[in-house]
Amino acid sequence: MTSTYENDQRETPARGAWPDGRHWGEDEKGRNTWRRGRLVGLAAVLLGLLPVFHGYVPDARGVGSLAETFLPWLGLLILPLLMLARRRRSALALVALVVPVGAYGGLVGGAVVGGGGGASYDFSVVQHNIADDNPDPAGAVRALAAAGPKLIALEEVTAGAAVKISGVLGAEYPHHAVVGTVGLWSVYPLRDVTEVDLKPEGIKEPWKRGMRATALTPKGHVAVHVAHLPSVRATWPQGLKTGWRNEAAVRLGAALKAERTDRVILLGDLNATADDRGLDPVVSEVNDTGGRFGFSWPQRFPVARLDHVMVRGGEVVRFEKLAATGSDHVPVLARVRF
């Protein structure tokens, strides 16, 4: 005869068990879920370490540069890893997923576009690669001017487009300079306009994509650089060709380092995100305080922030995208405070 005490012992789950009698870390068949899904767990941890240690990813065939370009998007890999962890019913993998969730949560939380919208600022600037095949450059800059910036920096400015642009902006932006294919239109007087030589050694044809000017603003003299670095090309089987872009970035970094003024603004299509190691010579000289997620390229579905406003002696308190023009880039506006 079975006692009531013995019945109670069989029907009551042990301490630390599921209501159906399973122990923590066991599936419905009693198998240990901490011993499975190790590869999924390892992948989750590595994914979580990537935002911090992306500089250690080898750059063979441009792999490191590619990973850094699309760094924010790699957080989407959390979803398939979660599905694999659930499919494997792996407690180990589910716990490991805390690492990438925390890492990319911090990445998003610390770089949300539009942050600091209520902060005071001195003036706003616009950066835009207007595209040399833009069918309506005059209409494009008319839209840019409507945002009220004090400085408008443009790249891929052809000789014909420069005339049309000045025809539209001449009254409101009486001060302007064009060097090669980059230009600056300003409400403030400009002086000391010079070319900044960014041309890589391997380019033989005429190539002028860098300029520097001093803007006489109410906050004092500001050194303004406008730059357009070479594009990164994908080839097979060599991979990504970043050499020219990186060489031009070194030249740009040297020009910024040589500045003796306390206030510097860099506007440009740098053909790289601020996370890309190729821009290290640049971001070591000016602060990238714009939003990491202000994607500006390509226009139809922006996935990377190639258009930048970087500052020394101040900060960008708001970084936002403007309406698309006839370019393959989306224009961006930054509010700057010194």
Account of the protein in words:
The protein has 338 residues and is an alpha+beta fold. Helix content is 29%, strand content 22%. The chain is built from ten helices and 13 strands. The chain has helices at residues 4-11, 38-53, 63-69, 78-88, 91-96, 98-109, 137-145, 159-169, 243-257, 280-283, and strands spanning 123-129, 151-155, 175-179, 182-186, 190-195, 210-217, 220-228, 233-235, 239-241, 264-269, 307-312, 315-321, 332-337. It has a six-stranded mixed sheet, with helices on one face. The protein has a five-stranded mixed sheet with strand order 5-6-7-10-11, with no helix packed on it. Helix 2 (38-53) packs antiparallel against helix 4 (78-88), helix 2 packs parallel to helix 6 and helix 7 (137-145) packs parallel to helix 8 (159-169). The longest helix is centred in the N-terminal third of the chain and has 16 residues, at 38-53. The N and C termini lie far apart (88 Å). Mean pLDDT is 88; it is low at 11-15.
Summed up, what is this model?
By secondary structure, the protein is α+β, with helices and mostly antiparallel strands. The protein is 29% helix and 22% strand.
